[in-house]
Amino acid sequence: MARAGNIVIADESALHLLLHSDLAARAESSDTIESPLGQLALTTQGMTGFNLDNRLYGEHPVKLLVNDAAQRRKSRAIECRYSKLEFPPGSFLRLRDGLYATSPELTYARMADRCSEARLAEIATALSGRYYLADKVRDRSGYLTSVSQLRAYLAQLPSLRGGAKACRALDFAMDNSGSPMEGKTMLQFCMPKRRGAFHLPFDCMNYDIRTGKTRAFYEQNEFCVDLAARSLKVAIEFDGDVHLDSSKDKRRRNALMALGWTVFPLEKDVLYSPAKTEQFALQVAKFMGLRIQRQNSWDEAYVDLRRQLDLPV
Fold this sequence. Notes:
Layout: E1 7-9, H1 11-20, H2 23-26, E2 28-30, H3 44-49, E3 62-66, E4 73-74, E5 78-82, E6 92-96, E7 99-102, H4 104-110, H5 117-127, E8 131-133, E9 137-139, H6 147-154, H7 163-170, H8 180-190, E10 204-210, H9 215-218, E11 222-229, E12 234-239, H10 246-258, E13 262-267, H11 268-271, H12 274-288, H13 298-308
Parallel strand pairs: 1-7, 3-5, 12-13
Antiparallel strand pairs: 2-6, 4-5, 6-7, 8-9, 10-11, 11-12
């Protein structure tokens, strides 16, 4: 139980903190907080002491969670948002004395009525990923959450605004993303066609393909592919900033082919072009023996989905 006068970083600010640092992976989980915001936090002295100007919280005003409707307020520096919900265990992370953040699960839940379904799926995929964004994409010391954990948490908040939408979005999210672009790639190709995507049957991100008895020949135990359709042995590899050695990539893909896998390399400029993305998806679908039949409203939904994923249209 935390002392009175605590500050809780929430909503967009908590999301920025979770995705741009490894602090949360090492933070102590806390079930309850008596007073998420005390009067000290509303003074200049209190705000300075908690360093609310920290860039890890994203743009001002920093979003704070309060449990007293009278404490709702907004200034250039902070915005205090009230909630009357009873939060399940594990809803907060203790960053240091007096300073908390909403857990990945509560952060996702509180974004439910602020984001579109596609954006929620992207957030869930990012929170369930193995990376964080600092000066570059970096590996986490531990996972923040998983899609199944997010779903289990939502089940404990039946009266949550936007809860049904948040649950639907989890149907499209995946664990183990290695970068924001991998998440956008997965959603663009795997979400249903009625949402403006291609509904390709990829089912795993950053999947380890074991070399088995050929380990000595390949001099490694496994190869990791960005997006895998395991039953079909088809993979997509995103050729972004992480994959810089083209000759090494070629040798790697030849090895995967020898193991029975077909790998489609996806250049960044393809994902940034609506026409090239569609052409790439049709090529993969044809190899899989699938036909992508475009519905009358698909073009409009395709543009809308790309906008939601912050991709060029």
